[in-house]
Hints:
Pfam families: NikA-like. By secondary structure, this protein is mainly α. It contains four helices and two strands. The protein folds into two domains: 15-47, no CATH class; 48-103. The chain has a two-stranded antiparallel ribbon with strand order 1-2. The longest helix has 27 residues, at 50-76. It is elongated.
Amino acid sequence: MLKRSIKITFRLNAQECQRLKKQVKKSGLSQEAFIRTLINGYVPKELPPPDYYAMMRELHAIGSNLNQIAAKANATGHIDRTVFQYEVNRLRKAVLDIQAAVTSPERRENNGNHGDMGCDRPP
């Protein structure tokens, strides 16, 4: 059974339809998901640039290398654990900050407008 059993149909003029399609394409979401996100008080962000995923893979590889270095250093006892842990935490925070900045939806302003998605007037 469908979780969403209520169907709502509404009409747009050509300009509104074109703006909706443009914003949906920028977000990478379906029209339905895009509208649900707006209804829930968020404005979807644009898709991240293609090199975002390569950068994230690189950051994760660095983190993996740090973990390997830590394991070896712990075995030999030749590293300052406090300093190393601090750097590992900084790397994790950087990865999360990049993900949040690029992919997380933002809360709408009180007036319902959001400059990033091309809304310059209320519907």
